[in-house]
Amino acid sequence: MQELHGKIVKYEEALSLVVSNAAITAYSQCGTLADSRRIFDGIESRDLISWNSMLGAYAYHGMDDEAMGFFVRMMRESGVQPDMYTFTSITSIIRCMQVL
């Protein structure tokens, strides 16, 4: 994944939002959440998919407290409205937190 990302960066001056959002998910699924966050932080104009991708990355890694904090940040700072994917992630996180 890092090799592919390196080639994309080399041949594209800036990653498109679509590729950045996909990279957030891909890095997360490969176990490199720090790279997911680095890409998210580098996106100037984040959309709902950017926020949902990072929220899903935290949830995927069982980082429920971080995910909830991230959701609160999304609601306060982003100006985007949550959708069914956002609420599905939040519902899953809350359910896991209650089990613990």
From TrEMBL:
One of its GO terms (biological process) is RNA modification. InterPro entries: PPR_At4g14850-like_plant, PPR_rpt, TPR-like_helical_dom_sf. GO terms for molecular function: RNA binding. Keywords: Repeat, Transit peptide. It comes from the Eukaryota. It holds the Pfam family PPR_2. PPR repeats lie at residues 47-82. NCBIfam families: PPR. This is Pentatricopeptide repeat-containing protein.
